[in-house]
Amino acid sequence: MLSKELVESLLCPRDRTPLRLADEALVRRVNEAIAGGNLRNIGGQEVTHPIEAGLVRDDMTLLYPVVKEIPVLLPDEAIDVRGMGGGRREHGAERSGA
Fold it and tell me: Model-level pTM?
């Protein structure tokens, strides 16, 4: 899994909004949408493979997938998660000073 230090240093490539680990419930909902065949990334491409984890923006609008423990921080690969809920910080993933 991604280290706390790594997660704390990552920012959204679109607007430099802080990122944090998505909670298990949000990852599950994203994977359910993927399995249902009705999820596209910001670039318009259908997302076909389940994610193992995700990094969600602090404003809870976009999620960047984590594949084989590597964050995919390409702007077009982001997934719009508005309306999916969840995304709270996992235990131990709080930002210091935030």
Answer: 0.83
